[in-house]
Amino acid sequence: MTSSPSRTLAAALFDLDGTLIDSTPAVNRSWIRWGEEWGMTPDFREGMHGRPARDIIAALVPEDRFEAAFNRVAELELADVDDIVVLDGAAELLGSFDDSRRAIVTSCTRPLAAVRIAATGIPAPSVVVTVDDTVRGKPDPDPFLEGARRLGVDPRDCVVFEDAPAGLAAARAAGCFTVAVVGTHQAAELDADIVVASLADIVVTPTEGGFTLQTR
Fold first, then answer.
1. Band of pLDDT at residue 124, cut at 50, 70 and 90
2. Catalytic residue among 17, 22, 140, 142, which?
3. Identified catalytic residue from 15, 80, 140, 163
């Protein structure tokens, strides 16, 4: 772990899958079935974690088949919410922020984010930014810029909690402070200001005008 920032931060932006919740079994089942139906080789998703489904599919199928392919994987993912769990420390950390200072920023579609949040019962913030809310998804900065905008804060005063290189790249491009959570990727693969084994390692201390972070 690196040292924590001494300055006050204004808001926290959380990735969803792999950061707050683990939907890996459901995601794998859906995408494996999709890949089999669409004739993909078993390694077709390699290096794609954290990127929007539409970007993955656009790289794999011809443009004239994109809508059918995207709709099918969306159908499969929406139907499978088994084995989705809240990750260690996630609910506690998310709940430690006032609602005006927290948001979820995910590469999921709006319906998929809603289904997965409901399946886990995690305390969802009022602001949830999905891939449907920006033209460009992660690794572009647009999703985190939109999250900061909706909270009414400067993105440079936000901390982003992420588990994927694509999400961390988006956060850095937005000017945010970054905290990486090891799990879907090893620590050596995660370029962040702080790297932790789980969100349980983060301690939030309220201050006038925001909060500071510490690591256990």
1. confident
2. 17
3. 15
The residue segments making up the domain with residue 124 are 11-22+84-215
Which domain-ending residue is among 50, 79, 108?
79
Structure tokens of 111? 């319906």
Looking at this protein, which amino acid is placed at residue 22?
A: D
Among 142, 68, 83, 140, which residue's Cα sits nearest to residue 116?
A: 83
> Using a CB cutoff of 8 Å and minimum separation of 24, what contacts does 98-101 make?
99/125, 99/126, 100/151, 101/10, 101/11, 101/12, 101/151, 101/153, 101/210, 101/211
pTM of the model: 0.86
Examine the residue annotation and report whether 15 is marked as an active-site residue of this protein. yes
pLDDT in tens, 75-122: 999 999 888 999 999 999 999 999 999 999 999 999 999 999 999 999
User: What is the model's pLDDT at position 1?
Assistant: 43
What is the radius of gyration, based on Cα positions, of the chain?
17
Q: Are 77 and 30 in contact (CB under 8 A)?
A: yes
pLDDT of residue 51: 76
Residue ending a domain, choose from 39, 58, 79? 79
